[in-house]
Design a protein that fits this description.
about 120 residues; mainly beta; seven-stranded mixed sheet; four-stranded antiparallel sheet; globular
């Protein structure tokens, strides 16, 4: 069965950093595109960052220059390095695994940016 598991969330002060991880199993990881989405309290889920199977990246304007998405195919893991965090970044962060035929989501990990 397919499993997608996020980790690394927590409480951090404004200006701080956090690295999220997402490990996927049960798929041929290297052929999938990977994405991070987030859902602030009371709001819709929104796109954060994505990386293709070839390594091309894309970011939401709100996180450009602060967040970096990367992947390690040997570890079946995608990362989201978050720097210069703002209170507006507070949300549940979800990992998405996509290849055009299948689409899988993780359970989410909470990120809270507060002093």
């Amino acid at each position: 069965q397919v499993q997608v598991v996020e980790s690394g969330g927590g409480l951090v002060q404004p200006g701080g950093s956090l690295r999220l991880s997402c490990a996927a199993s049960g798929i041929i990881f290297r052929i999938y595109a990977l994405g991070w989405y987030r859902q602030p309290p009371g709001k819709q889920r929104e796109f954060v960052a994505a990386i293709t199977s070839g390594g091309s990246t894309n970011y939401a304007d709100s996180v450009k220059g602060r967040f970096t998405i990367s992947r390690d195919n040997a570890k079946n893991t995608v990362y989201l390095q978050m720097n210069s965090l703002k209170p507006e970044d507070t949300a549940v962060y979800y990992c998405n695994v996509l290849n055009g035929i299948n689409n899988y989501w993780g359970q989410g990990t909470q990120v809270t940016v507060s002093s």
